[in-house]
User: Fold these one by one.
Assistant:
Number 1:
Amino acid sequence: MLAGALTACSSTAQSEGRETTEARPNTIVVTSTQPATTTTVAQTTSSTSTSTTSTTSTTSTSTSTTSTSTTTTTVPLDVYDPTCVERVQPDDNLLTIATRVADETVDPETIKAENGLANNLINLGQLLDVCVDNGVNDVTGEARGERNAVIVQREVMAQQTKLNELFAGYGIRELLVDGVSGPVTRQRLCAFRLAVGLPVSTADMVADGTYAKLTTPLVGYSPAPKDPIRSQL
């Protein structure tokens, strides 16, 4: 059935111490031969006592600790959608900015594409739109004319990989997985649509989600996260 659909589409198709000595008085008694005369001489020995006082001085040191509290005030961004915009901080790079965003589609490459950056160079204070591929410039609020080119390229590569699996065994050469939706890729997509009973052109499809439901399990991802018919399929 795919092979037949492929033939039918051939014409429509063209990524923080103290020492004391106390002297006792010595009494010397002298007796003379003269009677009843007694002379008593008292000999006193003087002793000097020296007292040494030792003083111990104790020094007490008191340490005072001062605690400083710093309060940082964040000024709201004056942009269309502050939740979708990051201001470049010191030591930031595209990878650190991407990790602050809870979205698997946001990485350095998709941020570059969304903000029109030619390389990884960013400036302190620069505002970056990090809600990629939502169709809006979240800094200015202007609508974007085109989808995020890196997202589109990754989607096309996923399509090409899945289409090669779908058409394996039909004797048809594999698509080059390059992210470019060329005429051969479009031909295979056309054949796929015919095989599942969809119109050849997405322009003829109703935006009711039917197309996304059919293609998600087959192509490997949701081809229309914003609009059921806004897709390369």
Number 2:
Amino acid sequence: MVRFKRCKEDRIVTLDVTGDHNEDRTDVVDARYAKFRTNKAMVLEITNLSGTTTFNEARSLHDSKFTYVVGKELHVNWCTAKNVVCGVGIHYYKTKDAAIGHEEPGDSFTGKWTMWQDNGQVWVQGGYERGVRIGEWNWRHDNGQLREQGRYDEQGMRDGEWNGWYDNGQPREQGRYKHGVRYGEWKQWGRTG
């Protein structure tokens, strides 16, 4: 099973998952973007985010002592509880897009950006221009309800109308930003309206 993992220095590791895994988790909303883990995998390839440059090794985002090397088979202890997402094991995604979206991009990234929750549900969506947030951005609660929405100007500052909602869909706040600073009247509501 070919799968993908994000590592330090904006590197993507392509893995062949050959061991036990938890892809049969019961809490998955969209398996294409959910996080999974295994106890055994072979490192097939390591590239930059765009896939244009290859590397021989990459360091884990969460344990800098753990290194992925092309051609090396990895064996680790792992938590056998299937629905535990962030337990011990080699974490990975089914798609390269999901692996890329595991962390915010580096300073040179330009384009649309999506990050997913561990169950595969969209968490954050927006755009970057040379590593700076621009345009409309949306954040979602764990249940999929919109949490916050607003725009960033060309300098990466919040600008214009911003809205926030509770996880039950009720409005939480509404107001405006001007170059990253709140200005004017802001409205706020309780969870029930």
